[in-house]
Amino acid sequence: MTTTRFLTGITPSGTPHLGNYAGMMRPAIAATREPGVENFYFLADYHALIKCQEPERVHRSTLEIAASWLAAGLDPERVTFYRQSDIPEIPELTWFLTCVTGKGLLNRAHAYKAAQDKNAEAGRESDDGVTAGLFMYPVLMAADILLFNAHRVPVGRDQIQHIEMARDMAASFNHLYGEHFTLPEAAIEDNVATLLGLDGRKMSKSYDNTIPLFCAPAQLRKLIGSIVTDSRAPGEPKETEGSALFQIYQAFATPEQTAAMRRAYADGIAWGDAKQMLFECIDREIAPMRARYDDLMAHPEKVEAALQIGAGRARAIARPFLQTLRAAVGLRPLSAAQPQAQGAQKAGKAALPAFKQYREADGKFYFKLVAADGRLLLQSTGFAAPRDAGQAIARLQKEAGALQALAPQLAPVAGVDAGEVSAALQALADTANT
Ligand code: TRP
């Protein structure tokens, strides 16, 4: 059976709130119970240093976030749960990737551009206050993902560009040094709740309108009491549409309970009563987790032990893989011979030509056909989309006459005649059919 490897990072900044829980933690933990998946969840504390230079906050937040995930039901037996800074292979891979990444690619990263735009608006020099850490953020994130050859990366929409960049970096590295990396894909969960906050806007730390996930019951009650409502009196029918109270209730209630609350709104429930119901509903789900959370916060060594188990498992993969990558780029003991060439020349396999797909600095997608001995046989021109390049490859491997038909998309290669190219395509077609 093939398993799909999911990997995602959680930046430890701040204290998790109900919105983080309903929108991210709860679905992510549920996903770890599905069959056929393998999960790597980690605390992205190197990333935290980009935004936060208060050591105590980074430290405290790492503990809070790790304890929150464990308390919310993350099972370290099922999930490889680790802390980024326990994996020294990540910064080493970051450097390898840095050296195959166009600076221009990083110039286009949204987070960096946003910082520049802000400076422009304020009339400041464009890189004012921008650290190289912020600029390099996408490379560090690509190293997180590629080190474990993750297939799918659950992230918010704001992170899709980073996954695309990770793919670009993987393709560049593979193109130069052989097929080492899986090209990851973003996994966007569209039907999870984005909770509204106390003031009716999206619940977010930056709006200061959150309800902390594990605050004490009295505090929870008080915060729920402060959720904005309109001024309709008890007995007057109320709107569920746009009601933060209703929307939060829905994220914690069963469908039946939600339907009952909808009727209660229509029947003119008093806001105070609706708030009481919301409190009970949330507290029912959260109370057992809060007890675990309080225990973990009182015993940080338990959290540390869980993370060390994760680090051990993660490094068991990362360490040997990084050895392979070091050798691939030419960092190896001087007494060692050349590494075995990749792919076709592996023992037991007949030497075959191979198609390689990659992206160039012009942003277009290319492929080439390389003979088993490494000589270039075919070279495409640039395609706008990876799919177009893929389809051309598929045609070349399947259709007789595709070579002529696709001639306009192919660039001539000196010293290679058409007969050799046809023979190579034929050899590929033959193995595909056996
Ligand atoms: N940048 C991500 C965020 O802010 C966190 C993150 C770091 C991450 N490394 C990652 C997410 C690798 C997915 C994969 O949300």
UniProtKB/TrEMBL annotation:
EC top class named in words: ligase
Protein name per its UniProtKB record: Tryptophan--tRNA ligase
Gene designation: trpS
Task of the protein: Catalyzes the attachment of tryptophan to tRNA(Trp).
InterPro entries, per database record: aa-tRNA-synth_I_CS, aa-tRNA-synth_Ic, DUF1508, Rossmann-like_a/b/a_fold, Trp-tRNA-ligase, Trp-tRNA-ligase_bac-type, Trp-tRNA_synthetase, YegP-like_sf
Higher taxonomy: Bacteria, Pseudomonadati, Pseudomonadota, Betaproteobacteria, Burkholderiales
Native source species: Alicycliphilus denitrificans (strain DSM 14773 / CIP 107495 / K601)
Reaction it catalyzes: tRNA(Trp) + L-tryptophan + ATP = L-tryptophyl-tRNA(Trp) + AMP + diphosphate + H(+)
Record-annotated DUF1508 domain positions: 361-400
Intervals of motif 'KMSKS' region: 202-206
